[in-house]
Amino acid sequence: MIPNRIKIGPRILALCVLFFMVTGISETIKASSLFQEQNNQEQTSFSQYKGEVRDSETKKPLIFATLTVEGTNISTVTNTEGSFVLKIPKDTPNKNLLVSFLGYKFKSVSLTALKENNTIILMDVSVTELPEVNISVPKDARTLVKETMRKKGQNYFSDPTVMTAFYRETIKKRRKNVSLSEAVVTIFKTPYTSSRRDAVQLYKARKSTDYSKLDTLVLKLQGGPFNALYVDVIKYPEYIFTEEAMNDYNFSIDRSTRINDRLIFVVNFSQRDEIRDPLYEGKLFIDVEKKVLTSAIYSLNITDRTLASRLFVRKKPKNANVYPTQVAYRVDYREKNGKWYYGYSNALLEFKIDWDKKLFNSVYSMTCEMAVTDWEKNITTKEPKFKDRLKSTVILVDEAIGFSDPDFWGQYNIIEPEKSIESAIKKIQRQLKKAQ
């Protein structure tokens, strides 16, 4: 899912790459046994709920809404269709499900109100009236976005920074996990005003893959942590908002809201009707006072399956057509001492494989997310040599073999995909402290 610089007319788009390769069934036995054991355990000890999160007025799906069981680390997010699958241990006491989404009112739903297959959760928009003093709604949303991008040197980190981050990627066939990979990485973040790219070094990694569910394919995600890192649109505007590409979008002020006690403009953007090539649509959350992009949620407008397939698929079987059906991104920034920095991002790709001479197609989803767990100004640490850095073409499930360390992961050596990334981070931070 790593962005590639693909020229379509005068524009440069952020795109993803998949990697396919035919494999032998003999390689799948051990992994299949592990997944079967996990699936059997889940069926006996977990209750599963499926549903959707939607806007209460428009009924539109809310992408990347967060659902968390109150007082636990059980969490999940909705996909590009606003759908979710939540697994809860059967011995969990009767608690509330907490649902949140940027720019919407917080919602609490009792677990007893959830249905197994058709829970609809409606969210209300949070609208805040602007204070009369010194703040007014900009007449031109495009100008507001341009001003926000220009102020990156003023509002975001201006010093080299060393970050520790936790990265996770998942491949699913419909609802079943096929491949799970996790890693702790060190990010050598260059200043936001610098054109130099960030460097990434792998610290620890692990994986669990069941190739028997892949239609005799090894399906791999190319790019690893860079898939999440390049979603940082302030650092890498060339993947979405170049000066040239700005003119291909319509911008409008949606509303104002409060997020973490900050007054925020919600800006809608979508490609102009006369633009035929696929661009993006989504929402930008801009701090009213400082003109800082605090979050962005956007998706690719897939209008041409053939073009999308050529851009996203590196290799594929001759007897199949492969094309993406949904591509979505999210990035969140954090603030420290008046300066903002990359804190979290995720990417989601859903696609279909139409097989020749087969009645049914295969549906897969690939997700990745990365969250910064710690950072410090880089005063003395040298960036790793080129040979020690992760390449932007890395395939983590292959790279993880050389960085596996059961002692580091400790009692959490079994990957738990239903656990929230926040829960995983707490475990990782404890292990990092021990390692130091």
Summarize the structure.
The chain is an alpha+beta fold and 436 residues long.
What does this structure look like?
The protein is an alpha+beta fold and 436 residues long. It folds into two domains: 329 residues, no CATH class; 80 residues, Immunoglobulin-like (Sandwich). Helix content is 16%, strand content 41%. It is built from nine helices and 21 strands. The strands form five sheets. Strands 13-12-11-21-20-19-18-17-16-15 form a ten-stranded antiparallel beta sheet, sandwiched between helices. A four-stranded antiparallel beta sheet has the order 6-5-8-9, with no helix packed on it. The chain has a three-stranded mixed beta sheet with strand order 7-4-10. Strand 11 and strand 12 form a beta hairpin. The chain starts with 5 loop residues before the first strand and ends with a helix.
